[in-house]
Design a protein that fits this description.
The protein is an alpha/beta fold. It is built from twelve helices and twelve strands.
Length: about 325
């Protein structure tokens, strides 16, 4: 049985380290492991692969992979894989939602703390060697507490669920938005369906976007929904940049329609130098680092090897993706 690993990316942390393939060979000697450092050999190697670890395979490559039974994505988002050829196939897709989710949830909470306590502004004053005690207090909105505030989490999946528990532990009121509002979620006080999204946004002091990219969620936060945010509310995006209409966001922030935004993801990455987001005082940017942790690849190995044992035993796999819903 053959496993193909192909995870080429400009950011080295998102590429599988050499030890990953070597450990698989040692633990699963019945498995032939081919680890490519780029996409040059994919067409040849995919033809007889039974399993692939990848987040980007073209439709014609899927069609040519006559033996392929399972694709595992080391990302949470799988929209880049979802070609018509993959949708029409019997190939199982799994993702890394439980590897990344809790870490991204921590980052979202860190951004909420930073916004509430005006840490980005404090850093700017530090760089100016200015003791800005008065200036920081006189900003609108004032520095505030997370305890007692309302956090609306849009998406109660691998990120949203652990974030809800963390926020609840801090004494926050937690509102969730998900497709099936009848499903309760630990730590969430009120759950809205998609039809109640605008109401959930109006209640929030902090809105966190923790959604996959699907046709339904593309530019979910358009001008009309951004207008639902309270003047003192903050918007946090740790999902994908295209969840927000970026032009509408810039316009709303320029008008100070709401307090500000913290963005770990943007529509184009790296964010172009000419983007107005770089210099806006009510924007806090982190460069798509929410999932970064020194434990990431150990967690990837633990998750994938567990599913590999299940695969060999003909047991149901964990973290399976609904190819129609794309998550």
């Amino acid at each position: 049985m053959k496993l193909l690993i192909v995870l080429h990316h400009r950011f080295h942390l998102w590429q599988a380290p050499p030890w990953f393939a070597e450990r698989l060979r040692q633990e699963f000697p019945q498995l032939e492991v081919v680890h490519l450092s780029n996409y040059d050999g994919v067409d040849k190697e995919i033809a007889d692969a039974d399993i692939a670890i990848a987040w980007s395979l073209r439709g014609e490559q899927i069609k040519a992979a006559k033996k392929l039974k399972w694709i595992h994505s080391t990302a949470t988002a799988v929209h880049a894989l979802m070609s018509p050829e993959l949708r029409a196939s019997d190939i199982i897709v799994t993702n890394a939602r439980d590897v990344h989710g809790p870490v991204v949830a921590e980052h979202a909470l860190a951004l909420a703390f930073a916004l509430a306590r005006q840490l980005p502004q404090a850093l700017k004053y530090q760089q100016q060697r200015h003791w800005a005690q008065t200036e920081l207090w006189e900003r609108t909105p004032h520095p505030r507490e997370l305890s007692g505030a309302t956090m609306t989490i849009v998406g109660l999946g691998g990120i949203g669920r652990p974030l809800a528990k963390m926020a609840k532990c801090l004494g926050m009121r937690v509102v969730g938005v998900r497709e099936h509002a009848e499903r309760s979620c630990e730590g969430v006080d009120t759950v809205y369906s998609w039809d109640g999204l605008e109401d959930a946004l109006r209640e929030a002091d902090f809105v966190v976007l923790a959604l996959p990219v699907t046709p339904k969620t593309h530019q979910l936060m358009n001008a009309a929904r951004l207008a639902c945010l309270q003047p003192g509310a903050y918007l946090i995006n740790v999902g994908r940049g295209v969840l927000i209409d970026e032009e509408a966001l810039v316009q709303a922030l320029r008008k100070h329609s709401f307090a500000g935004a913290a963005l770990d993801v943007t529509v184009e990455e790296p964010l172009p130098a000419q983007s107005p987001l770089w210099e806006m005082e009510n924007v806090f940017l982190t460069p798509h680092i929410a999932s970064q942790t020194d434990k990431m690849w150990e967690r990837h190995y633990a998750a994938f090897s567990e599913n590999l044992r299940r695969f060999f035993a003909s047991q149901p796999l964990l973290w399976m993706v609904n190819k129609e819903k794309e998550y």
